Amino acid sequence: MTNTSVTMPERKRIALVAHDHRKRDLLAWAKFNRESLSRHHLYGTGNTGGMIARELDLPVKTFQSGPLGGDLEIGARIAELKLDMIIFFWDPLEAQPHDVDVKALLRIAVLYNVPTASNRATADFMISSHLFNESYEREILDYGARLKIELD
Q1: pTM value?
Q2: What is the torsional sign of CA 57, 76, 127, 21?
């Protein structure tokens, strides 16, 4: 197996996602970190992205809501190398009607070595890292012929 290097730019493309019972937590975190987030490109699933855009007055490119395919849209952007990070406050105690989509999103994030925070502590560590505002060479393991990466 060989590695492929992908450069994450200084201005990251960050997906913001939260299950219903975690939306307030993500919003509080995003408000606290508004200034840092404003220097990056933000994306989100429908309801979460819209909430962040309204409450923080920041541009957020929104996809469908999670149960309607938004998680899969984010996964597709990862596979296309068009997203750099995910802040996904998911609810481990609430069954979701789209659990398989959530699992697929998390699987693709791991496959493509995308930094992923699932709670506030991890998100705090990610956003406070000096790497958050610097370019970063992310290594993606080839997994033999099973994973084909086309770089622009």
Answers
A1: 0.87
A2: positive
